[in-house]
Amino acid sequence: MEYYCCYLRKSRKDIEAEAHGQGETLARHEKRLKEYASSVGIKISKFYKELVSGETISARPVMKQLLTDVENGMWTGVLVVEVERLARGNTLDQGIVSNAFQYSNTKIITPLKTYDPNNDYDEEYFEFGLFMSRREYRKINQRLHEGILASVKEGKHVGTSAPYGYEKYKLPKQKGYSLKIKEYEAEMIKLIFDLYNSGNGLDFISHKLNSLGFKPRRGKSFAKSSIKHILTNPVYIGKIKYTDKATTKKVINGEIVRVKNDNRNIIYVDGLHDSIIDLDTWNKAQSIRKNNLTSHVKVDYTLKNPMASILKCGLCGNSLERVTCSTRNDVRICCRKCKENVGSNINIVEERLLESLKLLFNNYKIKVLNNDNTNLDALVDINNKSIDNFKIELEKNNFQLNKTYDLLEQNIYTKEVFLERHNYLKQQIADIAEHINELEEENKHILEKKNNKEILIPKIEIIINSYYETENIILKNKLLKSILKKIEYFKIQPKDKDDFKLKLYPKLY
Known about the structure:
Elements: E1 4-9, H1 12-19, H2 25-40, E2 44-50, H3 61-71, E3 77-79, H4 91-103, E4 107-109, E5 114-115, H5 120-153, E6 166-170, E7 177-181, H6 183-197, H7 202-211, H8 224-231, E8 239-244, E9 247-252, E10 255-260, E11 265-270, H9 279-291, E12 311-313, E13 321-325, E14 330-334, E15 344-345, H10 346-370, H11 376-409, H12 415-469, H13 473-483, E16 484-490, E17 501-506
């Protein structure tokens, strides 16, 4: 029985074509491949649709799943509109794709040609096609980059969307785009600069805009970061700012990732668009930013709650906050979200917590010290010997698995025998790895039990005693976090101020 699937992926060229109204790419390709499959009597069992345009296989999750299925011998053939859709990345990616199809004897089918991995001519043609597609990909990238730089230097807008205050439009009788002013949004831009230059801070400006009913294009309200971006964007004085080569590729932990480029080139040119802000207003705003002339209220950010981040509301899970009640000269902890969970005096909660900790660890100490741990070392030794034996078996199976590829290449194994042997050995390897993992986890738990008796209990006693000896809130917080995962607080319909419950989650098990 033969089984076929279809792989669909957009290229960067397709994404640009869609932006110019040429229709949805994947739908057009799917229709084309369905028509071709029907004409040659192929039934497509599954469609792999890649919704991202990643340069490498690691950036394309659907492609990774397809290769896994191909390696497992799931498909007789894979249909694509062109071989370049499978791999246009670097030589390593092309080798991964080529090996997956070759060793699983899976055909690559396009409307123009079918590639048989066991045919030497087809294999060379396929690899040459991938090489040429990579070369074309580099040239396309180079032309795109040169085109963007040329447009920037001509004062054109190259962003995908227009900044607030403008709308993007196609330049008549020439390539590229520019910006034209949106009057309603431009009034808001002017208001931001006027408020800022009058000595108002970002918080005040964002609240003012939101109260006047101004809305950002995305989201419900203006944030401080949005205001800051507007105040520093030279587009509002008729300039175009472009960062050339803002990121560069690096290999980190075996993965190709993009990181900030220290040698990036920032370009400033006069734009084709009109300015919203005059130069004097702009320079004044930049001077205020540079010299920090706006007044700020000094806020004390030092930690004041020893139970911070571990004391949680038992109803909603939010962290309880420390609140000062000036009318009652009281400092309380309360949940901002749940009105049903009533707050309490922070000192009373802290005192109850320490009492609960003492009781908890006294009970735990009795339980651990009464357990007989004399056989723990012997059990660890037995598990370690079993792990060593399993590792030897694992090496044998890995060697046999690698051997199956050689036997397939030498035509000693047929495809069916290879797949049967290959899948059996992979299952054996997985089972052995699982056994090793189970034994290592068991040893871990045994050692934890042993440490509880020899190390953990004395450590906890020291921590509790140290808590009473220090007034440093940060140190107290660290001491609590070292022995507690979290504390849940409950005070529903209390009868008096002490009528609350604490549920402790210690780091013991």
